[in-house]
Amino acid sequence: MDLKLLLISTLLGLFCCSNAQKEGNECINANAKYCGECIQAGAKCGWCTDPGETVSTRCDELDSLIKRGCDKAMIENPHGEQKTLKNKPVTHRKKGAEKLDPEDITQIKPQKLSLTLRSGEPQSFDLTFKRAEDYPIDLYYLMDLSYSMKDDLENVKNLGTSLMLEMEKITSDFKIGFGSFVEKTVMPYISTTPAKLLNPCTGDQNCTSPFSYKNVLNLTSDGKKFNTLVGQQHISGNLDSPEGGFDAIMQVAVCGDQIGWRNVTRLLVFSTDAGFHFAGDGKLGGIVLPNDGKCHLENNMYTMSHYYSLSSEVILENSKLPEGVTIAYTSHCKNGVVSEGENGRKCSNISIGDEVTFSISVTSKGCPKQGKTDTIKIKPLGFTEEVEITLNFICECECHKDGIKNSPLCHNGTYECGACKCNEGRVGRQCECSSNDVATEDMDRTCRKDNGTDICSNNGDCVCGTCECKKRDNPEERYSGQYCECDNFNCDRSGNKLCGGHGRCECRVCICDPMWTGSACDCSLDNSTCMASNKQICNGRGTCECGTCKCTDPKFQGPTCETCPTCPGVCTEHKECVQCRAFGTGEKKDTCERDCSYFNLIKVKDREKLPQPNDASYPVMHCKERDANDCWFYYTYAVNNNTEKEVHVVDTLDCPSGPDIIPIVAGVVAGIVLIGLALLLIWKLLMIIHDRREFAKFEKEKMNAKWDTGENPIYKSAVTTVVNPKYEGK
C-alpha cells in the first residue's frame, strides 16, 4: 500500500473543512437635496455653493458645473486620502546571523494604514511580502497508527527523523513535536468489545488500544527525544477504511497551549495511507453535533471524537468588510507574472528570500457605517503578521461645518453650502412650505407665465409657488428662467452644431462669439478667408459673404475665385500629374504622391463616359495630351460645387498601332518583281523596236544594193563530187 504524505503549511487559522453614461449621469440621477447627499452619489459629483443656483442644478459633474458658470472656488468636491502609520521595512537577514525574536522579524509591510474614503473613489496602496531567511519554524509530525500502516511504520518513523534533520538546515530556530491518531472510538469505526478495546488486532498481533488522537510530544528543540518517541510507536486497529485524521488535525490546530505553538511559521506534516471521513459520516455512530472548533485534550488525549465530526504559495485574506466597502487585489509575482481578480490575491512558487508585491485598492459606496470609523485587517494566509487598516468615510462636505441652523434665509431648516437643508416635512427653496401643501391652486397660479394654462411652461414643477425646472437626460442641457421658459439647447444650428459652434445658446437665442453673426452664428465677419494670393478680396472676381467668396465671373471658381478650369493652359498644367496618377508614367512618377494629391481622380472606361459641359453644374475642361510614347490620353478637369478639384480620365491610352511586317515585305517583294517585269517588258519592247528598225534598214539597203554577177577567180567551190566506179547506174 502506497504511503500518502501531505505537507501542510499553516497557522492555526490555515485549515479549512454601462452603459458609459446612463440617462443623465449619476450626479443628476441622485436628485441630491444637500451637499453630503451629492458627494455620496459618485466620485465625479460636485456641489455648487453659489447662492444663485437652484437646488435641482447644484449637483452635477465638475465639468458641467464649470461650463454652467459656477466658479471653481465655489464647488465642493472633497477627495479621499491615505496615511501610512507604521511602515517597518521587511527583514533582510541570513542564516547564522544574530538571532532575533520572532516579534522583531518583519515579512510584510506596511503594517498600519489609515484610509479616508469618498464614495466611488478608490484608495490604492502596495503591500510587500518577503519570506524571511532563518525565520523560526514550528513543525508538528502527525502519524497514522491504524493497522493498515503496519507495513509503512518503519518508513514513517525514519521520515520523521529525516524531516527534523532537513529543517535544521533551513533554520537555526526550530522546534518539532509529534502526535498520532487512529479512529473515532465508537461503533462502527472500531470494535467496542472489551477484548478488542485492549488489543484490536487479530491472532497473535500485539497492538495498542485504539484512540482518536494523542499528543505524544509537545513542540521541543530536543531532537533526540523526538527520535526516541517516534521509534517507540506501535500499531493500533479499526474496522473501516477511512481514518479520523481530520479530527486530529483540528485538535493540532486549536490546542496551541498544549502543543506549544509559537507565533512563528507553523508546519503540520500529516502521514497516512488511507482516506478520511467526510462531513456527515459521524451519523453512522450516532454523532450529529458539528465540530465546535475547540481544544478537547485531556492528558494529551482527544476526548470528544465520538461527539463531533509547507507554504510555497502566498494567499492574502482580509477580515469582514463593512457593507458598501470592496477590495480589489492585483498580484505582481516572480518572473513578471501579474494577476487580477481572485488570482490577484496569491503568488505561487515563493521561496525563502523571495519578495512579491500586491496592489490593493479599497473603494466605498455611499456612506458605510453611517460615517463611523471601522478597521479591517489583511494578512497572508498561514502567517501571523498583518496589515491593519483604519477606514474613515467622507459623508459630508467641508461647508457642512459652517451650516447655520434656523437661519433667517431658511424658515424651517439649516442654511449650509449655499442652500437651505430643510427640516423633515418642509420643502421649498427657503423651506417655506409644508410638503402637504405643495400642489395647491393658489401656489400654482404664480407658476403660470402671463396667466397662461401651462405650469412652469411644462418644463418644471411648481414647488411652493416657485418653478423647479426639470432635469434633462443630457447634463449639458438645462431649462432656466422664472417659469422654466428658457433653455440652452433649442437655438438655431449650423453644420449640425448648436449656434454653429461659434456662440452659446441663452433662452433659445444664439449669443455669437466676436467676429461671428447670424441667427446660428454661422456668418464670419473675418475677410482673411477670402484673401487671394494676390492680396485681393476674392481675386477681384467676387464678393466676400460670411467669410466665403461668391464669384461674380462664372469662369472662376474656388474659395478665393482663383481657379479657372476652362482657361488656356489648364490641360498642360495638370498633364504630368494626371499621367503619373492614372498610368504611373511621366516626369512626376517618382514624386507623384507628394506633388499630385491635390485633386480627386476618377477613372472611366471610354471618352463617352467623361463629364460633358452641358451635364455638369460647373465648368468642365476637356483635355487631350500625348505622352513620350506618342500615346494619347483623354481627361477632364473641373472644380465642383464643393470647391474640390476633380479629374475624370479614360483609363486606357490611345496609342498608334505598329507596322504589319508581312504585308510590307510582301508588298516590297511584289513591287520589286513587278518593277523587274516592267523593266524587262520595256527592254523587250525597245529591243523589238530596235530589231525592226535594223531589219527595215537592211531590207532597204538590200533593195538599193547592186551586186556584180561575175565569178571570183580565186573562188573555189566547196563541193567535191566523187563517182563510185562500181556504180553501174542501176
Mean pLDDT: 79
Query: Termini distance?
Result: 163 Å
Bin the helical content. 10-25%
Number of E strands: 42
Q: What is the count of helical runs?
A: 13
Order of neighbouring strands in the sheet with most strands = 5-7-21-20-15-18
Q: What about the largest sheet? A: 6 strands, mixed
Topology:
Layout: E1 4-9, H1 26-29, H2 35-39, E2 45-48, H3 55-58, E3 59-61, H4 62-68, E4 75-76, E5 81-86, E6 108-109, E7 112-118, E8 123-130, E9 137-144, H5 153-170, E10 174-181, H6 194-198, E11 213-220, H7 223-231, H8 245-254, H9 256-259, E12 265-272, E13 297-298, E14 301-302, E15 314-318, E16 325-332, E17 338-340, E18 346-347, E19 355-364, E20 374-380, E21 387-394, E22 404-405, E23 413-416, E24 419-422, E25 426-427, E26 433-434, H10 441-445, E27 460-463, E28 466-469, E29 479-480, E30 486-487, E31 493-494, E32 497-498, E33 503-506, E34 509-512, E35 516-517, E36 523-524, E37 542-545, E38 548-551, H11 570-583, H12 592-595, E39 600-604, E40 620-626, E41 632-639, E42 645-650, H13 661-704
Parallel strand pairs: 7-21, 9-10, 9-12, 39-42
Antiparallel strand pairs: 1-12, 2-3, 2-4, 5-7, 6-8, 8-19, 10-11, 13-14, 15-18, 15-20, 16-17, 16-19, 20-21, 22-23, 23-24, 25-26, 27-28, 29-30, 31-32, 33-34, 35-36, 37-38, 40-41, 41-42
Helix pairs in contact: 5-7
Notes on the structure:
18% of the residues lie in helices and 26% in strands. The protein has 730 residues and is of the alpha+beta class. The strands form 14 sheets. It has a six-stranded mixed sheet, with no helix packed on it. Strands 1-12-9-10-11 form a five-stranded mixed sheet, sandwiched between helices. A five-stranded antiparallel sheet has the order 6-8-19-16-17, with no helix packed on it. The longest helix is centred in the C-terminal third of the chain and has 44 residues, at 661-704. Residues 1-23, 277-289 and 301-308 have low confidence and may be disordered. Disulfide bonds join 27-397, 35-45, 38-70, 48-59, 201-207, 255-295, 333-347, 367-623, 395-399, 410-420, 417-456, 422-431, 433-447, 462-467, 464-499, 469-484, 486-491, 505-510, 507-538, 512-521, 523-530, 544-549, 546-592, 551-561, 564-567, 571-580, 577-655, 596-631. Keywords: Calcium, Cell adhesion, Cell junction, Cell membrane, Cell projection, Disulfide bond, EGF-like domain, Glycoprotein, Integrin, Magnesium, Membrane, Metal-binding, Myogenesis, Phosphoprotein, Receptor, Repeat, Signal, Transmembrane, Transmembrane helix.
